[in-house]
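Translate sequence into structure tokens.
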Amino acid sequence: MFDNVKREFIQENGISNGDTTKRSKIFREYQLSVKKEDRAKGTWTLQQYEGKYRSAMYAAVKAANPDWEPGQPFDSSILDSVTRESVESSLVQSGNQFVRKSIDYSV
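Result follows.
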């Protein structure tokens, strides 16, 4: 999921465009790979991670260029510091949600 979010974030200049995304395929493949009783909670968790990955990428680009707005081009090397591990290590569970610990994306 992380690689797909990053590819689409760069391709679409930070806009979540449902017309060009491959997320449905990723979700379908995931659902087919787990037991039926685990699908709903696993899909929900995958969706939570997807949003957190996108938020981290947005934050990194905004930190590098505070005037940037989604849809505007940006230097994709800004996202080199955003990794799946860096995002996931910044999350804590609060109830049934993942929330971010404060993190510095200074570039």
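Note: Residues 1-100 form one domain.
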